[in-house]
Every structure is written in C-alpha cells, then in structure tokens.
C-alpha cells in the first residue's frame, strides 16, 4: 500500500499540470494553488494517520490558507480533534469546521 507521501506527490503533480490556467479561473496565483493543495494533502494525511479516530468521512478543502472541514464524525471530541489536527499543519491560517456529528440510528423496537 502506498503511503501518504506518495499521495501528496501525485496531488502536487496534478496541480502543476493544470496550474497554467488556475489564476484566470480562480483568481489565485499558481503558487497559492500549489500551497493550498499541499496544505489539503497534509491535513488529509494527518487525519488518516490518526489512530484514535476514524476520519474517513471528513472532507478537506483549502483556499488561500483557510482549511474547510466538512463531512461527518461520530462525536464532538472527534470534531474538535480534526480541527486541532488541521491547525497543526504549516501554512494553515484559519480552520472552518463544518463537521456534523452523526446521530446513532434508532433501534428497531424503540419509540421516540
């Protein structure tokens, strides 16, 4: 199985390949797009590497150094931990945590 470093390299190569038109499409320079892609990849790698929690349903997007977390986690503690992990990555200016807490499904015989 390939490690997170391989994924970061592949992501960066893809960004560089499509970077020529990025500024006109997004208003961000090629360097900013690459920096944002690197931040996103590093945050994802750290979330995946977190052994105590399952962050497979967390999406990460970075724009101008601002990291956006979205998706679903199992608890408030996991929501807080995901944000802490994102803040540890170099280059992150702000974290917007839009993670939702999943609610346990009702058991078949329960009433509400």
Please explain how this structure is put together.
By secondary structure, this protein is α+β, with helices and mostly antiparallel strands. The chain is about 45% helix and about 20% strand. It has four helices and three strands. The chain has a three-stranded mixed beta sheet. The longest helix has 20 residues. It is elongated. It starts with a helix and ends in an 11-residue tail after the last strand.
Mean pLDDT: 85
Strand order of the largest sheet: 1-2-3
Question: What is the CA-CA span between the terminal residues?
Answer: 45 Å
Rg over CA atoms, rounded to whole Å, is 17 Å
| Count of distinct strands | 3
Largest sheet geometry? 3 strands, mixed
Low-confidence stretches: none
The tally of helices reads 4
Notable features of this structure?
single chain; 112 residues; alpha+beta; 4 helices; 3 strands
Q: What is the topology?
A:
Layout (H helix, E strand, L loop, with lengths): L3 H15 L3 H5 L3 H20 L8 E6 L2 E8 L2 H12 L6 E8 L11
Parallel strand pairs: 2-3
Antiparallel strand pairs: 1-2
């Amino acid at each position: 199985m390939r490690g997170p470093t391989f994924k970061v390299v592949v992501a960066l190569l893809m960004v560089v390949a499509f970077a020529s038109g990025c500024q006109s499409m997004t208003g961000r320079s090629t360097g900013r797009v690459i920096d944002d892609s690197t931040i996103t990849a590093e945050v994802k790698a750290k979330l995946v590497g977190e052994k105590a929690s399952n962050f497979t349903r967390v999406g990460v997007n970075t724009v101008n150094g601002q990291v956006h977390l979205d998706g679903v986690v199992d608890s408030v503690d996991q929501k807080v931990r995901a944000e802490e992990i994102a803040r540890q990555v170099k280059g992150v200016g702000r974290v917007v945590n839009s993670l939702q807490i999943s609610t346990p499904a009702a058991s078949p015989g329960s009433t509400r």
